[in-house]
Every structure is written in C-alpha cells, then in structure tokens.
Amino acid sequence: MSKDIQSASTLSNDPEERFENPGLPPHTPRKNESKPGLKKLDSAIVTGVFSLSALASLAAVVLYFVLPDYSTLGNIRLGNLVLGLGLAIGFGGIGFAAVYWAKALMNDEEMVEERHTSRTSPEERAEAMEIMRQGVADSGVARRPFITAALGGALALVPLPFLVPLVANLGEEDGWDISKLKHTMWARGKRLMTDGPHDMSRPIKMDDVTIGSVFHVIPEGLNDLSHEEGYADEKAKAVVLVIRLDEKDLKQPENSLDGIVAFSKICTHVGCPVALYEQQTHHLLCPCHQSTFDVSDGAKVVFGPAKRPLPQLPITVDEEGYLIAEGDFPEPVGPSYWERKK
Asked: Any stretches that span the bilayer, and where are they (predicted)?
C-alpha cells in the first residue's frame, strides 16, 4: 500500500474532524460607502429611473389619445407602438431601479442564520419581526423619501398603458360597443375583389376560379375607405378565402356555387389569419396555433383549439359572370366574445 493511500485510510469519516468551517470571506466595502457623494448619486439614479418609469407610463396614455387612429410607422399603428414602449419602459424601469437599489444602497453584508425547528416560540417570532424591521431599515425607505415616492408613482402609473385602451373602448351597449363585431362590409350584390392595392384589386369572374385555385378576397368598395373611415378595422373582419373543389369532394355540394366556397379567413380561436390551404386534404391551417379546418365539410374543425367552423360567406354570380355576395356572414366572424351565443 502506498504512503498516500495509507495516509488517506487514517483520515476520520467525521466531517467535523476532517474539515474546518472557513467562515464568511471578509466584507469588501462598496465604493459609495467611503464616498458619500457616490451614495447620493446612486440614490438620485434610482429616483430618476423610477420617475422615468412613471413618466413613460403617463406619456404612453396621453399619446394614445393625442395620436390619430390612422397614424402609422411603417405597418405599425403609432398608438399601439407608444403603448408598447410605455409598458416596456414602465416595467423595465421599475425592475432596473429595484435591482440597482438593492445592489448599490441596501446592506450587502452576508449573514449566517442557524437552522431551527419549524415550530417557533414567541421569542423567535419577535426576533423575526426584528429582522424584518432591520431589513426595512437597511433598505433606507425611511431615509430616502424621494425614492419611495418615485417607486409609488411608478407602480401606480405602470398599469395605465394596459388599462386605458380597455376603458377607452367602453361603449353604450352593456358598457362595450360590440355592434362592430357583429357585421362586416359584405352585403347583397357586393362583388368579390382580389385582395391587393387599390390599383391592382379586381373583381373575380366565376370562370377565373378553377378547381384547386385559391383567391384572397375583400368586398367591393373596401379599398375606397380611408384610414379615418375605418379601412383597417373593416378589412380585419371582411377578408375571405375563395376555393374551388370538385363537387364530388364536397360533403354538402348544395352549399357551394358549382364547387366554389368562400370562408372567413379569421380563425375562430384567437383571430389569426387562416390562409394555408392543403389541396390534397382540403384542409385550411391556422399558423398561430395549428387549428385545422376541413373546407370540404363546411370548414369544420378537425384539429386544434378552435371550437367553431369558419363562417361561410353566401355567394352567387351576377349577370356579367362576376362573383357577388348574397349578404353578410350568417354569424359573427372571428373568436368568441362575451355576448356571442355560439
């Protein structure tokens, strides 16, 4: 047996005899502990970031009402952009300032607390309360009223960018204007137009729709609306997918126009655009949560979280051979809402 093995074999198995408790490392004071000016600067930074958070939340709410509904930056509505930035700066500022406060101003000395049984005595509870009071004292809440006020303001204002748009949409019908959700621009006689810019959108003839073809469709007159007149809102509800199948593949061919069917593109789960068509299975797939609808069977749900089929637009053909709507959808399009019966 080697010397090293012999030495190891003589060691005790008792951890207390084999190892000594090294204890806590020496406390290294922070720079601001020796320089009061730095501590004041850190306090000002925390106060400033809390205040910035509050101002960002308040500014987002003000700009939401000041900016026109149709103002955009690229394809992003400015009202939504400022609300998002307000929430990001509001919550981010609170998080950053809280972490900075803890690291720069609160007590950073390590402490060892001996383990004890779960049952506590009155003396131990009193000791716990004293520790909590000491923690409050270490945080400097009482000594730094400006930080406390800034934190309170930030916490009070940060929910506003989320809550105000909900309250701002309150209407007359049971507190919410849900009438806009019940109807679209589709009406009797409106031609089905290809979805595209105003100068490229065109009406669709029945003969243009061959078996297996797919058309993304909007109602006639939609592109004539301005943003102030609600172009984006109307298009979000009225977009339609037109598909032609062989009538023998349809389970209810009487609900088609020589195999042509038109369904809302708005998923009945959360409203994502359903536009991925698989020609062999006749399935429509929602890319957001994989709800799948069977076009050959009235767009019924065959997979995924959606609970209702896609609403079908009733269509016919006019004297010139163009596809037209026979009316609006027989039911509201898109996801459920609280007053929808089905």
From this structure: 44-66, 78-102, 146-170
